[in-house]
TrEMBL record:
Nucleotide-binding keyword on record: yes
Keyword Repressor: no
Required cofactor(s): biotin
NCBIfam families reported in the protein's UniProt record: PRK08591.1
Record-annotated Biotin carboxylation domain positions: 3-446
SUPFAM superfamilies: Glutathione synthetase ATP-binding domain-like, PreATP-grasp domain, Rudiment single hybrid motif, Single hybrid motif
PROSITE patterns in alphabetical order: ATP_GRASP, BC, BIOTIN, BIOTINYL_LIPOYL, CPSASE_1, CPSASE_2
The Lipoyl-binding domain, residue ranges: 581-656
Name of the protein described by the UniProt record: Acetyl-CoA carboxylase biotin carboxylase subunit
ATP-grasp domain: residues covered: 122-319
Pfam family, one: CPSase_L_D2
Cited InterPro entries: ATP-grasp, BC-like_N, Biotin_BS, Biotin_carboxylase_complex, Biotin_carboxylation_dom, Biotin_COase_C, Biotin_lipoyl, CPAse_ATP-bd
Length: 665
């Protein structure tokens, strides 16, 4: 056994913090690496030492093996933990660590090399007798070969990057005429994300469950599994809600899937923590999907039901020690759930959201693994997941209800988030009954984003009362010799304030009437509610609205007020005193929806375009996003340059709309 004294974590965000917590608990010195964008990040502050490794883009920092190795040498690190993503499944990185005499906290080069390539791993699994999805995983990567094989397989078809994961380089094809474009997009995305454009094709299994088995192996030939996780709720092939155990799992099926996962690990002489992913169809048949040769994002749910610290086990095995567990030692207790809090806009097809973090306030009811902080920033250069929230209960429903409560007490103000979507999803009938499949989001919310409906007027009333009280307190601080008890009091009994709120494209005028100090009648048109402000602190308010008591977290940014109400978030801007803002150009003005790299501009000035035509491709949050024309017309101006970084709302191009055809009256 080789003792680890100093551990360098070759990652960032929540997983870097997670690994460091266990390492520090074991008395191991920790080292962080960071890019320009992460100079003040939580993982840098948490580490005992930190090394700057380059600019924000991953290809200039977190993906540079030689810089990571040099940082380890400079800080005396005798081991490197890769986390997940970045270099965690890079065989060359594992080899570079070995060549430098540094312990790699992960599997050997061979296992990563085989299992990190979907084509090779699938061939290996077929040889080992593990059930696999029909498809093409050949070496010939010519477009015409892939198109020919796609025609043989038929639709629905999945085009997938052979390297990497996380839903990148993946396209679902329902019409064979779209195969060529899917291949182009998937290959480009894979090359940018993983440096490898190799693709595989698979018959798409519609509405399966995504069930994965956690395996662990030591260097002495011992391999076991730690049960399964159900990761079926996904958007863009990336997991959103995970749980353990799987709601439909039986003892016999667990034994079969566990045995298959163990055989898969043994086939490549695996060592360390790994996850064998399967698709489970409605008949109970399961098919090998891939093996992730690293710690998974969702590992906490396994920790919660087994009582094991998987990072501690990783460090133990990496040190050359025995695993110290046999299969019969593994017991599963209760039920655990994890949700991924993303900085994104579910209403806009889950488009990533970036920007400063005005307030980050997680719930104390759950385990929260996060890599953000108040005053920090969600960068456009990295994955949009900012935190994981984990709950455990004696039953599945207890864990689910505890998760909803924890989310209701969670606030992230600044970028848009999926918090409200998660609360809503956890309460959908098919999730409540444990029947969710990978089709859950499409079946419950459609294909064009999540519409949770309009906010109740009471939400705006709450915002107006809080705004009223905050303004009043600000004025009082500037006044001399005014008794606080006189606030909200008038001899005429007719105090009123008015707010004009903008929420997206809508605006409404709201009147706040003071009945007596702390008691208000709030109205707008035919809407009216009674609001009592029970208490107000720096970031929390307790109110009674039409007799119903609730608490909300808030953040006041001058005219803009952010609210995290129990089930919905609300951001309003008070336009009182401001002139109405003019339209910025409508569908003819095409701007960047977020900060990112403008990969391509596909039209030229003077070109005719129709609504729905592809205009440009933007890469942000490691994903490629097609920007489409919203109107018919002629491209008048190209304002941006392909290959350059572009900020949110920067002008890309302008389209002059076609004149409406005149009709006889």
């Amino acid at each position: 056994m080789t003792r680890i004294n100093t551990l360098l974590v070759a990652n960032r965000g929540e997983i870097a913090c997670r690994v460091m917590r266990t390492a520090r608990a074991q008395g191991i010195r920790t080292v962080a690496v960071y890019s320009d964008a992460d100079a003040n990040a939580p993982h840098v502050k948490m580490a005992d030492d930190a090394v700057h490794i380059g600019p924000a883009p991953v290809n200039e920092s977190y993906l540079l093996i030689y810089k990571i190795i040099q940082a380890a040498k400079d800080t005396g690190a005798d081991a490197i933990h890769p986390g997940y993503g970045f270099l965690s499944e890079n065989a060359a990185f594992s080899k570079a660590c070995a060549d430098a005499g540094i312990i790699f906290v992960g599997p050997p080069e061979k296992a990563i090399d085989v299992m990190g390539d979907k084509a090779r791993s699938k061939r290996a699994m077929i040889a080992a007798g593990v059930p696999c999805v029909p498809g093409y995983q050949g070496d010939d990567q010519a477009d015409d070969v892939l198109i020919s094989e796609a025609n043989k397989i038929g639709v629905p078809l999945m085009v997938k990057a052979a390297a990497g994961g996380g839903g990148r380089g993946m396209r679902l094809v329902h019409d064979l005429k779209d195969v060529a474009n899917a291949i182009k997009l998937a290959r480009s995305e894979a090359e940018n994300a993983f440096g490898n454009g190799e693709l595989i094709l698979e018959k798409a299994i519609i509405k399966p469950r995504h069930v994965e088995i956690q395996v662990f192996a030591d260097s002495h030939g011992n391999t076991i599994h730690l049960g399964e996780r159900d990761c079926s709720v996904q958007r863009r092939h990336q997991k959103v809600i995970e749980e353990a155990p799987c709601p439909v799992m039986t003892a016999i099926l667990r034994e079969q899937m566990g045995a298959a996962a163990v055989e898969a690990a043994k086939a490549v002489d695996y060592v360390g923590a790994g996850t064998v992913e399967f698709l489970l169809d409605q008949s109970g048949s399961f098919y090998f999907l891939e093996m992730n040769t690293r710690l998974q994002v969702e590992h906490p749910v396994t920790e919660e039901i087994t009582g094991l610290d998987l990072v501690a086990l990783q460090l133990k095995v990496a040190s050359g020690d025995l695993l110290g567990l046999e299969q019969q030692d593994v017991t599963l207790t209760g039920h655990a759930m994890e949700v991924r809090l993303y900085a994104e806009d579910p209403a806009d097809d889950f488009l990533p959201s970036t920007g400063p973090v005005h307030l980050w306030q997680p719930s104390g009811l759950a385990r929260v693994d996060s890599g953000i902080q108040t005053g920090g920033e969600v960068s456009p250069f990295y994955d949009s997941m900012v935190a994981k929230i984990v709950t455990h209960g004696a039953t599945r429903d207890e864990a689910r209800r505890r998760m909803i409560k924890a989310l209701s007490e969670t606030a992230l103000f600044g970028p848009k988030t999926n918090r409200d979507f998660l609360i809503d999803a956890l309460d959908r009938p098919d999730f409540v009954t444990g029947e969710a499949t990978t089709a859950f989001i499409a079946e419950n919310y459609g294909e064009d984003g999540v519409d949770l409906g309009a906010h109740d007027f009471s939400s705006y009333a709450i915002a107006a009362v809080i705004h009223h009280k905050l303004r009043q307190q600000a004025a009082h601080r500037l006044a001399l010799n005014v008794n606080p008890e006189m606030l909200d009091w008038s001899s005429t009994g007719s105090l009123e304030t008015v707010a004009q709120y903008a929420d997206g494209e809508d605006a409404q005028t709201i009147h706040v009437h003071v009945d007596k100090p702390g008691h208000y009648r709030v109205g707008s048109g035919e809407d009216s509610v009674a609001v009592e402000l029970i208490s107000l602190t720096a970031d929390r308010a307790k109110l009674r609205v039409d007799g119903r008591t609730l608490e909300t977290i808030y953040y006041d940014d001058h005219r803009t007020l952010y609210l995290a109400l129990p089930r919905r978030s609300l951001t309003v801007t008070d336009l009182t005193g401001l002139s109405a803002m003019e339209d910025a150009g409508g569908g003819g003005t095409v701007v960047a929806p977020m900060h990112g790299l403008l990969l391509e501009i596909l039209v030229e000035a003077g070109a005719r375009v129709a609504k729905g035509d592809k205009l440009a491709v933007l890469e942000a949050m490691k994903m490629q996003h097609e920007i489409l024309a919203e109107i018919d017309g002629t491209v008048e101006t190209i304002a941006a340059t392909a290959g350059k970084q572009i900020a949110a709302d920067d002008l890309i191009l302008e389209i002059v709309a076609d004149e409406a055809e005149e009709t006889d009256s």
